[in-house]
Amino acid sequence: MKFTQIIILSILLSAGWGCDKKNEDLIEPLTAESFPQVITFDDEGDGDLEDADEFSFKLTLNDRVDTSGEEPDGKIVPLTSDVTVLFEVTDWEGFSSIKEYIKDTRAFYEIDDCTTSEDQGINLNIVFDINTGKGSVRFPKNVTEVEVVFETDEDLLNDNLLNTEERAVSFAITGVQAAGNNVVYNKSAGFTYEVLDDEGISGDWELDHENTAAFTAFKNLFGLVNEDISTLDAGDVDKIEISIEYGEIKVIVELKETETITECGSMEEVNKVIELEAELEDLSELSDKGDIEFTGEVEQPSGSLKEFVYTGSFQVVSDNLELVLTGEYDDDETEEITLQLTK
Amino acid sequence: MKKLCLFVLWLNMALAGSAQTPSGNALLKGTVSDGSNRSKLAGATIKVAGTNNGTVADLNGQFALYTSPGNFSINVSFLGYRDTVITVSVKSGEVAVLTIPLSSSSSQLSGVVITGYLQGQASALNQQKNADNIKNVISSDQIGRFPDPNAAEALQRVPGVNIERDQGEGRYVLIRGLAPQFTNISVNGEQIPSPEADVRFVALDAIPSDQLASIEVSKTLLPDMDGDAIGGSVNLVTRTAQSRQSHISGSLAGGYNNLIKKPNMQGQLQFDKRFGAGEKLGIMLNGNYYHNHLGSDNWEQAPSDNEMELRDYELVRTRTGLSGTIDYKFNNRNEIYFRSLYSRFTDREWRRRYVFIPEDEEIEKLTKDRFESQTITSFNLGGKHNFNKFFFNYEGQYSEGEQDTPYDHEIGFIAGLPSSFGFPDAKYPVLDAPGFNDNSNYAFNAAGYGKTLAKDRNLTAKFEIGIPYKSGISNGLIKFGAKARFKKKSYRLTSDAFESSDGVPALDSFDEDPIKDKFLGDRFNMGRPLNVTSFNRFFNANPGLFELDVESKSIDEALEAYDANEDVYAAFAMARHQFKKLLLTGGLRYEKTNVKYDSKDVLIDAAGDLESILPVTGSSDYDFLLPQIQARYELSKYNNLRASVTYSYARPNFGEIIPAQEINREDNVANIGNAGLKPTAAFNLDLMAEHYFGNIGIASVGVFYKKLNDFIYRKILFNAPYPSTGTPIIESIDVIQAQNGNDARLTGVELAFQRKLDFLPSVFNKLSLYTNYTYTHSNAKLQSRGADQSKPDAIEELRLPGQANHVGNIALAYESGKLVVRLAANFNGEYLSEIGGEASEDLYVKSRMQLDMNASYAIDQRIRFFVEGLNLTRQPFETYLGNKNNINQREFYSWWARLGVKFDLRSAR
Asked: Is residue B308 scored above 50 in pLDDT?
């Protein structure tokens, strides 16, 4: 039997030798389960008019798998213990020093739609050195988003000139102090706050809806994608405004008809509005004239979305804005239509 | 009703008149072996002289024959051996045990091991000649005649069989022009589960050919065989210990792959011995290992998307086989056995590809590193009991198939570069893409990290009872039995896709030296490939730069995962009756199948976003009554005529029936299950004439006809809306779905010729020829691809997917003393692989002929050196769309070779 044993052993050895070269030269990547929590900026940037007295960025966490299965497209899973997030100003333009523009900071998170941590006196230990531009904030456990607000000198950049140079301040996350938490930060993520020039195209522009030609032009242009606008009667309208903001454009028709809304426990009588939102794909900023293109989506009866696009040009003369646009939607196209708007 | 009438008619014929169980039975048991080397002679016929009462020796040369008591003679015959007559005396209720040595009728067979190949061929032909049904048998010796490392490649030499290859190696078997799902695969007579997630058929490249004693390909079914085999039934038979002398055999070989310029190696070791004075206990152990480096150079195009890919594959494959058989004979009437088989196939693949997308002015560079193992394990525990008036066989089987992909990593980079390409000669693309191989142009796009685990488990129990009877001078057997098989199949996967907005360095930070100098004959410089390990190291060190696409993960994992249970209950009754020269075997089989499955439905809202994932439970059941009749008429000692009428069916694959939906918007492909899919049912007619040569050989011609109802085919609806009913949420996507066709007809002619050409002049009389050719023609009716709302019932006719008109083999061997040289060519005709949205989009696999060579030289009866060369003419794998000029894929493997030694210590006595 000794010989038999040798044979059996040989066979087993050969089998063992044959088993799996699978781990040769292999580095197993982190799995979704072992992947750390990633703190990052909620958005890449934001902007406001030059007379704004504050701006903010939000720190948040990347989505993770919802193990309960209730949200299969993922959700933010809050931290299980507090971490401190370090951030700093990485660049600025339009002013000589950080302390010249930024005066103070605060931070908060939303507890619900009507209550913030500030309301309850919760201190997030925000620290910001206006000399070095370095700061830190506590990202508490069980919180999905922390907003860091910078109070600014509202007069510093509020000039009466059309600025042709960019005015902005950029931030980066530089570290997290997680103390045992499996938390990292997105090293490449940045946030840039841009100062929008109210001598340029940015801001709110009003259309004279009582001017029949202007109102008809407006209806022809935006009635293409919005049935409510196409059937609008000038007599029902209180105000028509086109608002050009950071990265987006809003067409707001404020009706005379009002409705009562309840917000955070208080009731308010407000005008009904028809609103059309679109993303600015192309805009000649830092100029009083140039090209403009914006796109949006319209929900169909089936629930699907269909894209529209408006392209054209603009010119700002003093407090007047001339928009020359062509709209395309669902194989239909408008003629080139000119809108005259005022501040 | 028609089936039932056929069965009743058969039973009447079989049992008509004076059929009776002999009042006093005796049992002859014994072993037929070669008189000089004691090799067991499988397929030998043992017949009581002057009667029609006979039987055939099994794979171990053993037989059991019920007779009337008394003194009589038995005739024993075996192709290539002298007929032998033995006088026997046996009393009622007793068992006579015979050891029957036969002498070779040919001097060439007396050389024992050197000509052991001929013995294997003789055994195979004897089994084929004496089988009740139409079948081909390949013995292990025959497998050794060709350079075929796995079971699929061994099967390609059988008439009517062609194979689908993966990376140049045989994988799936197609019998008589029918796709792999029409063939069932068994080990030791019982179906084995498929390790793959979606299908039932088994990738036979997982099973090393060294592990097998023989392979049986049954082309017609008997009632005691599973009915779900329209094309045929492949039975892989493992080895058994045969004698008290220790038998050790093995091989060791090393080789070289010319494309990848790397070595390969293989080894095999087997031990078998029977123990005890009465040789009651037999033990056989076999282990083998195969390690191969291989690769391929590939280009393929998707004309509808105006995309072209260059693919560079590098693979390391291993096959490990372990099998063992323990059998114990309590006495001459009762024995039990335990057979086990373990096969493990591993495949590590690096796929490096460029995707040229001129329309978007983009070029993608993707690198995959994937490991996959397929494991098949089976345990068969059974017994055979010969009682005085009947025999009782039973078996329980546990078998498991598992496909484990512990990692499947694909890293994608993308460059915003223009490109253009054309195919002026349809052989190679001409590419204009400046800078495409400069890695600094490529930015990170996505990293996919996946893993999958598919399991399929069968638990089977079956029994059969056979009652011999006598009618006049004719003898027969009534047999009935039942079987239950409980299958549990599951599939789990992890699909993590990570993206990054910024911060990941360009591809040149992760590249490495190329694995080879030339690609597609030096037509393209593929540049430096990405090293996945290097990228993964960066990924792990910088997780903050990456974000998981949770929605895609949830969708992919929910859609593909499932659990299924399938219970099959079967029963059969049959009779086998010898009318002088006519042997009729027939009966009825009933099979009922209950399927239950749990899967998940993914609801995607109209905006294309994930809405919810809902658990789904479903079931289906169906049953079949399958009459089977076989006739064999012995025109003379060496000539048989055969005919059969059988019914069979093929179950839908799990992946086809489970109504999961996989919508890949990135690839613009939707795979959708079809819960309403019906099994394909078939009516089969076969006729065959066989002539066997006394010096071992065969010439045969057969015709067959099959009518398939509800055949299943994989249909691609190009640029279809999704979903197909209601308001579409996707306007245009390629939808792939299994569907039932109307009906299909398949006819064919099968020719085979093999013999030693010893009738030729002396210069050539050491040549032998092995050749076969199969012609098939099919005609399937399905809903016309031009059908629309105005003509929804429009019908279109085309050939069955998988059906090649021409399939054949030719092998010419020179066998002289110690030297054997063989040149073997295998031809697979073109066949339709996937049905497209219109005829011009039908995907065909182009005809291919592979030329292999092997030679061996025997030092003595124990040791033989051999050399093998495969794919000597470097035939590529090619596919085309619609017509042969529209080639859309060519994959090149070059040639590979092995050199080694085989030893067989059986002769050392």
From this structure: yes
> What's the pLDDT tens digit per position in B326-363?
999 999 899 999 999 999 999 999 999 999 999 999 99
Tokens in use for B150? 């796995």
- What residue type is assigned to position B707 of the chain? K
Strand partners, B504: none
Q: What does the alpha-carbon distance between residue B39 and residue B130 come to, in Å, rounded to a whole number?
A: 19
Count CA atoms within 13 Å of residue A173 on its CB side.
29
Q: Which amino acid is at B237?
A: V
Task: Report helix, strand or coil for B556.
Answer: helix
Task: List, for residues A88-126, the tens digit of each pLDDT value.
Answer: 999 999 999 999 999 999 999 999 999 999 999 999 999
∠ Cα B80 B239 B48 (to 5°):
45
CB contacts, 8 Å: A11 with chain B: 269, 271, 285-287, 322
Q: Are A18 and B319 within 8 A, CB to CB?
A: yes
Residues in chain A within 8 Å Cβ distance of B315 = none
**Residue A74's closest chain B neighbor by CA?**
B550
Cβ of B351: how many Cβ atoms within 10 Å? 18
Could you please report the per-residue DSSP string of A203-242?
Answer: EEEEE-TTSHHHHHHHHHHHTTT-HHHHT--GGGEEEEEE
* pLDDT (tens digit per residue) in B729-755: 677 777 888 888 778 999 999 999 999
**Is A43 exposed, middle or buried (CB count within 10 Å of its CB: 0-12, 13-18, 19+)?**
middle
pLDDT-based confidence at residue B197 (cuts at 50, 70, 90)? confident
Selection from B631, B750, B748, B640 nearest residue B689 by Cα: B640
With H, G, I as helix, E, B as strand and everything else as coil, classify residue B695: coil
CA separation for the pair B490, B483 (Å, rounded): 23
| B544 at A interface, C-beta within 8 A | yes
Q: Which residues 263-292 of chain B have a CB within 8 Å of chain A?
A: 267, 269, 271, 273, 283, 285-291
Helix (H) or strand (E) holding B571: strand B562-579
Contact between chains at B544 and A186 (C-beta distance less than 8 A): yes
Distance CA B35, CA B28 (A): 20
pTM of structure: 0.88
Q: Angle at the Cα of A278 (from A273 to A280), degrees rounded to 5?
A: 140
The rounded Cα B567 to chain-centroid distance in angstroms is 23
Burial B22-60, CB ≥16 within 10 A → b, else e: beebbbbbbbbbbbebbbbbbbbbbbbeebbbbbbbbbb
Residue B291 has pLDDT above 60, yes or no: yes
Contact call for residues B689 and B739 (beta carbons, < 8 A): no
B635 within 8 A of B690, measured Cβ to Cβ: no
**Listed residue (A135, A112, A132) closest to A56, CA to CA:** A135
Nearest to B287 among A14, A184, A305 (CB): A14
For tokens 């055979």, the residue is B384
Question: What are B207's two structure tokens?
Answer: 């099973």
By percentage, how much of chain A surpasses pLDDT 90? 80
Distance CA B444, CA A27 (A): 19
- For the segment B630-640, what is each residue's pLDDT rounded down to a tens digit? 999 999 989 99
Distance, CA of B158 to CA of B165 (rounded, Å): 16
Choose the closest CB to B318 out of A18, A299, A302.
A18
Cβ contacts below 8 Å, chain A against chain B, sum to 159
Contact B548 A35 (CB under 8 A): yes
Given a contact cutoff of 8 angstroms between Cβ atoms, the answer to whether B281 and B316 are in contact is no
> Looking at the complex, does the CB of residue B633 fall below 8 Å from at least one CB of chain A?
no
Residues 26-65, chain A: which have Cβ within 8 Å of B? Answer: 26-32, 35-36, 38-40, 62-65
